[in-house]
Amino acid sequence: MQAVPPAADAAADSAVPGGAGRPLLTVERVAIGYHQPQGYVPAVGEADFAVRQGEKVILLGPSGCGKSTLLKAVAGFLRPDSGRIVFDGRDDLEPGPDRAVVFQELDQLLPWRTVVGNVAYALRATGTPRAAARRQAEEQLALMGLDHALDRYPHQLSGGMKQRVAIARAFALAPRMLLMDEPFGALDAQTRGRLQHELAALARRTRASLLFVTHSIDEAILLGDRVIVLGGRPSGVRDDVDVSGLEQPDAEGFAEARRHLRGLLASEEEGSEHGVFD
Amino acid sequence: MASSTSPPRTARGSGGPEARGPAGRAPARRDRRRGAGPWSRLPTVLRRALLFAALVGVWQLYVVVADVSPLVFSSPWEVAVALAEGWGSGALVGPTLTTLRILGLGMAIGMALALALTALAVATKAGDDVLSLLTAMINPLPSVAVLPLAMLWFGLNETALVFVVANAVLWPLAVNLGTGFRTVPQTTLMVGRSLGLRGWRLIRDVHLPSALPATVAGIKTGWAFGWRTIIAAELVFGVAGAQGGLGFFINNARFYLDIPDVFAGLVTIAVIGIALDLLFSVLERQTVVRWGMKQGATT
Ligand SMILES: Nc1ncnc2c1ncn2[C@@H]1O[C@H](COP(=O)(O)OP(=O)(O)OP(=O)(O)O)[C@@H](O)[C@H]1O
Ligand SMILES: [Mg+2]
After folding, report:
1. Ligand 1, atom 13: nearest CA belongs to which residue?
2. How big, in percent rounded to 5, are the helix, strand and coil portions of chain A?
3. Which residue ranges does the record annotate as region Disordered (chain B) (predicted)?
4. Are B98 and B222 in a shared domain?
5. Looking at this predicted complex, what is its ipTM?
6. Ligand nearest to the CA of A35
């Protein structure tokens, strides 16, 4: 997407005075599992972390370590079996538009609504009047470079376009926190790279708080201020790595962070293999 | 007669009302035997128009050559005249409106009940069990079979007919709606809930549109059931209320040996059937097919 003028950054910085220190989300000793016919399957053993206002936090870990489970719990779809999740002072979380979710699945748009209809509907469902919803939806979609596809139906879009619409919908809601579960996981590498940069720019500009799940190290470093590495079985937080200011792969420290995270993940992959076979 | 009025449960869509006239099949078969080379290259509209003209021609020829008694069979010309007169004088208009009103009312009630039952079934386990049990018990019954009961409960009037039609529409629609509701994609549901939708708004804005392909299929089955049932019921009933419907019109014409009117009634029924079928197909194309919700694309 378009480059963000440096002035926008500075303005946004001063727009949240002191807000950066307060935790918006705290995950306290959370354990979650699934009750299956064969018995209880633990997915998250003990997770502990916090996300401050305006911070972009990445959940990174090998497949099956409970990243999606944690995100769904923050979104309010699952309840922790023990521990608490406190968001904005509340710990009885129900799904709601203050935590807009972007899923990995490409079928997250309502197929019976057009591109602009999907975004406008989300706004109307959350109380925006019809005309304003339409206008805001168009603006947000233009920001994502989708102004030429406003009246198409989701089945007429490419995968990348669908995810762009889903991201536009999430940002249009101006949520307290954006939750994203591998939104680029189903895309080809090129589209994925482009969307990563678009998202990074948009997030920088809006100073949105972001909790983003991925198992791509580069994506984590590029998008995040902090990377929380999950691992073990049952899983917990292995490390909490500061990657702020590393928006470009050629930035100083990028290679270093990548090496560090790769090392952590490699030991996790080994560990989880033991977990599977013993 | 009984077996021809209870529709086979698999018959849907194009196999519906237009298969009513026994004469409708012969020319089609004959044309297929003639070979399909240049014939299949003609546009559909032209093929149908030609077939229709051929059918009418054969019909007229048969009446002239075989010299059948006018008390048993009418020529197309006589039928056309009877149709024109019936529609001109209003003799056919009243019965048609009556039948359509009963059909519309019965369908509206049946659809509302189906929606309520399915919503209950989605909301509670007990509702789900009730719906499964009821549909399993009642759905296999040919819808005319409840007619005696309806007559007993409501008497010889329109209410009984509305009841029968509502019953005919309710069960196939409830089955399809239930399937549609149960198969709403998990992601779609989560999207709705994360927008803060709950209860009726979630059902209206997410479940219902998501279940529309199944619903349209259910309505198509349901209306065809209702349509057959109402005509059959009118034929059995005779008069219903102040003004008889199309079935009554036909029966009455038969009683007075007004054979062209019998045919005029049949043609009216067939045309309405085709028109409604077309309407639902257009509806389907404008919605589920347009939205790329695959199941709808079969027609
Ligand atoms: N609905 C479910 N029912 C039962 N078990 C589940 C369910 N969803 C996830 N699990 C189990 O919980 C564990 C964590 O799953 P989760 O989807 O959170 O992993 P993940 O880190 O998101 O993996 P991936 O990177 O592959 O998406 C896995 O062992 C998985 O088998
Ligand atoms: Mg996952």
Report:
1. A43
2. 40, 25, 35
3. 1-37
4. yes
5. 0.84
6. 1
